[in-house]
What we know:
Blueprint: H1 6-11, E1 13-16, E2 22-25, E3 46-48, E4 56-57, E5 68-70, E6 78-79, H2 83-86, E7 92-94, E8 117-119, H3 131-138, E9 144-145, E10 148-149, H4 152-161, H5 164-175, H6 185-194, H7 198-209, H8 214-225, H9 232-269, H10 272-288
Parallel strand pairs: 2-3, 3-5, 4-6, 5-7, 7-8, 8-9
Antiparallel strand pairs: 1-2, 9-10
Amino acid sequence: xxxxxxxxxxxxxxxxxxxxxxxxxxxxxxxxxxxxxxxxxxxxxxxxxxxxxxxxxxxxxxxxxxxxxxxxxxxxxxxxxxxxxxxxxxxxxxxxxxxxxxxxxxxxxxxxxxxxxxxxxxxxxxxxxxxxxxxxxxxxxxxxxxxxxxxxxxxxxxxxxxxxxxxxxxxxxxxxxxxxxxxxxxxxxxxxxxxxxxxxxxxxxxxxxxxxxxxxxxxxxxxxxxxxxxxxxxxxxxxxxxxxxxxxxxxxxxxxxxxxxxxxxxxxxxxxxxxxxxxxxxxxxxxxxxx
Length: 291
């Protein structure tokens, strides 16, 4: 990453673009933060910040001349407050391919009354229900949204949807910054907050100490990166086997008790004659065998 310094601004390409605006090209420097823009001396109509690493749209000094801001392919997830005070002439804001999540994250643009073109293509926010109508209602000054002209029919539909108290409540509900559940994410975050248990730490130490080759060390490294604790599965497997053995022992005891009860019942039901026949049969068999 490169810091946006006064020296970088002075060395960056400057030219007159096809629409005859004076443009500053700061594209592709992997800049993480917008700063030191006072070094532009407010000499540009357009600044191109495409293909950087900017996360928040703020940090502007007073730039009365700036009309177009190109922020394609960054990581913007937040828009700073009072943007209109620093950029009073801003007309075109291109935020294509960023990380704006919620409709409420766009509310700081409400006060930018000069804004006429806005692009949010390839942002998660565009997948929200009523996205386009919400933006049209919230930012009536925008005439071109995602490079499509806002039609009169859309404005009427947006006005109807968000009209009155019910409409205001709907807009409020839609704008909420909701947390969407993603399988596995909550568990990972919990692990990050709490850290591994003492048993997990011991398992990791033992696995590393017992590693016999570089390949084994690499395998352990891969397991840790995947969130798996070496030895945990083994401990769990042993625990499961012990539980299964206990269950089998209990079942055998129950079966033995059941068989014993059945034999007692059969003995009680046997009469004397039956017992005599059994004894006689035993004597005959013994005599035949010569014993």
